[in-house]
Every structure is written in structure tokens, then in C-alpha cells.
Design goal:
single chain; 185 residues; tt1808, chain A; six-stranded mixed sheet
Length: 185
């Protein structure tokens, strides 16, 4: 995901440039990074998650082209859910759930930098990392000031905040075969 560093750019300048750009960019501490495209498999998982969350919540679910604002960062999560009033047409500022579908080019950033920044968003109750190469969903949950971690690889329901019904791996991986495809992204 991250490419060549540039000179410092203010948040306001980033937002103005991003509004006019045909290519999506993420922003971290004054630096802008172009985003790569995603595979069909990646999109299928994100789409499945969107459908499940949309059916399981009365809150707003968005994916792909909507930014989330953290402290000195703007990211484009794969899927997020917010139960707060909408204050911006292009940016969520108070998500309850955020999910990233892991890929070889973004996994280190999703597990490191993004995890760190997402955990600083006061409204965020859970952050999901979803594998493409196996049936595995990792969940970081807020427990007061601490965060807990759980890796789910079996068929038990995944209870998540802000959803009226649990998530299942069957829903996340609906329509995918783990034996038929090379997972290079």
C-alpha cells in the first residue's frame, strides 16, 4: 500500500487533493500514500461482510470508498460500521466496527500501523482482520482501556458490538473455495 514518501501535506490539503483525485490515497502524519487495487477474492470477502453487517444492524455500513479519520490519519477500511450521526459525506469519524481484509501487500500495515491508529479512535469497539488464504477472522475488542484478541477458525458465532446478530465464518467466506485459486494480490 505505501509507496514513495512526499513532503509534508496538511490534513486540509490532503482532503482537498483527495476530493479531486481519481486514485485513492491514505494519509498518515503528513504523508500521502497511493492505494493499490484489490483482487476479486478480496472484494468478495468485503462484500460478504458488508451484506452481513447491513442485515445485522440498524447502523450505517460503508465500504471501499469512504475514509475513516483517526488521529493524524485517514484510511480507507475495507468495511466499517458507525452508529453515530453522519457529519461528513466522505469521512466517518466515529466507527464502531472496522474490518480489513488481509493481503500480502497490506498485512504488515493492517496488523501494525492501522491497528495502532484504529485503537486510538474512542468510538471503535472492535477491529477485524480477515484472512483470504484460510478461514480465519481475528478480532481485537475494546475492553475498557484494554484490548483483547481472539482468532476464530471454527464455526462458532462471532459476537460483535453494534450488531444485533452474530457473524459467522460461513457468511464471511460465502462463495469462496480455498483449494482453487492462487492468492497473490
Amino acid at each position: 500500500m505505501h509507496s514513495v514518501k512526499q513532503e509534508f501535506v496538511s490534513e486540509d490539503d490532503y482532503l482537498a487533493q483527495e476530493q479531486a483525485s481519481a486514485v485513492k490515497h491514505e494519509y498518515a502524519d503528513g504523508q500521502i500514500f497511493a492505494m493499490a487495487g484489490a483482487s476479486i477474492r478480496h472484494n468478495r470477502i468485503a462484500g460478504n461482510l458488508y451484506v452481513s453487517w447491513r442485515q445485522g444492524s440498524r447502523c450505517r455500513v460503508v465500504f471501499g470508498d469512504v475514509k475513516v479519520k483517526g488521529r493524524r490519519v485517514y484510511y480507507y477500511p475495507d468495511v466499517m460500521l458507525s452508529c453515530e450521526s453522519q457529519t461528513d459525506a466522505f469521512v466517518e469519524t466515529a466507527p464502531c466496527l472496522v474490518a480489513e481484509v488481509l493481503s500480502p501487500t497490506t498485512e504488515v500495515i493492517d496488523r501494525g500501523e492501522k491497528l495502532h491508529h484504529y485503537q486510538q479512535i474512542a468510538s471503535l469497539q472492535a477491529y477485524l482482520l480477515i484472512a483470504q488464504d484460510e478461514r480465519r477472522v481475528e478480532v481485537y475488542r475494546r475492553a475498557g482501556e484494554l484490548w483483547t484478541y481472539q482468532s476464530i477458525t471454527d464455526d462458532r458465532p462471532i459476537e460483535l458490538p453494534c450488531l444485533d446478530m452474530p457473524l459467522t465464518l460461513q457468511e464471511v467466506y460465502e462463495g469462496l473455495d480455498f483449494d482453487e485459486i492462487s492468492l497473490r494480490e
